[in-house]
Amino acid sequence: MATYTLADNPIDYLKKILRRKGQFVTRAIFWKIPHNTRTEEDIQLKIGRYISPDGFAEEPEIKDPKSELTLDDEEFKNLLLFISENYEPFKQGVKKFIPLDGKFEKDDIDHLRALFSIPDKQSLLSFITSNQILSDDLMNSLQHQKKTNAVKRFEEMLTEELVENEWQKWFKENDWVLCSEFVKVLEERDIDTENIADYLMQAYDGFLDIIEIKRPSKDNDFWAKSEDHNNPIPSTALIKAITQASKYIHEVEKQSDSLSFLKRVSGTRTIKPRCIVIFGRSNDWTDKQKETFRILNSSYHNLTILTYDHVLHRAKRVLGITDNPID
Q1: At what angle do helices 308-319 and 136-157 cross, to 10 degrees?
Q2: What is the Cα–Cα distance from 251 to 195, expressed in whole angstroms?
């Protein structure tokens, strides 16, 4: 970087010839201007097109330029931002570029809403991907943001006293938090005339599993208030939930040869079903309670117990928005 002296003040310059064509030369110069009152330096940009029949002069100033523009520090930074945000889409063709600012007309917004409101979501997705309307990075980012918003809502719900239906709705819309082994939530919930599970799930191997949730509330404490020989013991409410889940597993196994049941669950096979019970909170557990929980879960071969905090931390780990271990 060359340093020139003007009016006894040192100013750094960095210059670059952008183009030579005939007798014209286009040149860009960075100006670094120090300040006596603060440590920051302003960066200015001068772009000029000069008549240079005898070659390009090396002085920082050229007399009588054909055209010249100097941007101050704020203008230069805004120019960089403008270029970084808009150059690539603009290069694709101005008619394909939609500016995300006040100039984006309401009719354009309504048109986009109509496009993305098509009821046949699978056809819409095929249309978007086959025509490369959205890049893979953008689609992945949108999916990640949707899941992140869902997790934020989950945390808010934990501070509210909600009915069980609200939790059932959230889990149905966000079944990805339950287990990567699950493919989809089945529309059918009835096992028989007396047993209705919260969710019947189809696992990746085509078999049926069960999800049972009990809303987090003061009446659904995970541990009993008293211990047995200094060991935490499950609360009565948790024991009831485990018993109910075990009954569901048993009833599903009884239906394994029922053609009517197989039809209702879209042919999903029902051999050795497993169940996940989501119950209570664990955000304030002691180390002893965490150890006992581990032992309790290991005692079941076809049933897994999770707390709402386990689900929350699992979701955050999947999304990469926390490094904290699961409580």
Answers
A1: 160
A2: 8
Contact 166, 153 (CB under 8 A): no
Instruction: Say if residues 71 and 44 touch (Cβ distance below 8 Å).
Output: yes
Q: What is the CA radius of gyration of the chain?
A: 33
Amino acid at residue number 323: D
Q: Which strands make up the sheet holding 182-185, listed edge to edge?
A: 182-185, 199-203, 208-214, 275-279, 303-306
- DSSP string for 94-125: GGG----STTS-HHHHHHHHHHHT-S-HHHHH
> CA torsion 113→115→117→120, rounded to 10°?
-170
* CA dihedral (107, 109, 115, 117) positive or negative: negative
C-beta of residue 46 within 8 angstroms of C-beta of residue 73: no
Do 207 and 262 contact (CB within 8 A), yes or no? Answer: no
The answer to whether the beta carbons of residues 18 and 28 sit under 8 Å apart is: yes
List the structure tokens of 223: 């541990």
- Dihedral angle over CA of 184, 185, 187, 191, nearest 10: 120
| C-alpha to C-alpha distance for 79 and 73, rounded to whole angstroms | 10
Angle formed at CA 280 by CA 274 and CA 282, multiple of 5 degrees? 105
Average pLDDT over residues 288-313: 93
Query: Domain boundaries in the chain?
Result: 2-91, 100-133, 152-319
Tens-place pLDDT, residues 4-26: 444 445 556 677 787 787 777 78
Q: Does the pLDDT at position 141 exceed 80?
A: yes
pLDDT of res. 137: 77
Helix (H, G, I), strand (E, B) or coil at 281: coil
